[in-house]
Write a structure and sequence with these properties.
mainly alpha; 2 domains; 7 helices; flat
Length: about 120
C-alpha cells in the first residue's frame, strides 16, 4: 500500500473516532474565536499532513528503528524551541533527561547495521 492510501485510511479512521468526542464531553463545535479555528487548521496541516507523511515516507527509505529513534528527539527539540522563542529555561531534570535520551539514541544508532538487502541493492 502506498503512503497516500495509508494516510487516507489512517486519517479517515482518526476523524471518525475523534469527531464525536466534543459531544461526549458536552462541549460545542462552534462559538470559539476565529484564531482557534486557524490554530486547529495549522495543527492539522503542519504536523499531520507534513510531519507524519514525512515519517511514513522515511520508514520506507531507512530503518524503522532509526525513524522511531528520531521521533524521540521531538521533546528535546520542543525544549530548545521553548528556550529560543520564549526564554523558557528547562528544569535540570529535563536537561538530564535530554542528555540521557541523546546518549541512548546515539548508542542505538551506532549499533544499527544496514540490512543485507539494502547493501546488496547498492552493489
Amino acid at each position: 500500500m502506498g503512503i497516500g492510501g495509508y494516510i487516507a485510511i489512517a486519517y479517515t479512521v482518526a476523524a471518525i473516532v475523534l469527531l464525536p468526542l466534543p459531544l461526549a464531553f458536552n462541549t460545542s463545535y462552534t462559538g470559539y474565536l476565529h484564531i482557534v479555528y486557524f490554530d486547529i487548521l495549522l495543527t492539522a496541516i503542519v504536523p499531520q499532513l507534513i510531519g507524519h507523511r514525512v515519517l511514513n515516507w522515511a520508514v520506507a527509505q531507512i530503518s524503522p528503528t532509526l525513524v522511531t529513534l528520531a521521533i524521540l528527539f521531538e521533546p528535546v527539540g520542543a525544549s530548545c524551541l521553548a528556550y529560543l522563542l520564549f526564554r523558557e529555561v528547562p528544569a535540570p531534570t529535563v536537561i538530564a533527561g535530554a542528555v540521557v535520551l541523546l546518549l541512548g539514541v546515539a548508542i542505538a544508532t551506532c549499533g544499527t547495521k544496514k540490512s543485507p538487502s539494502k547493501i546488496d541493492s547498492k552493489v
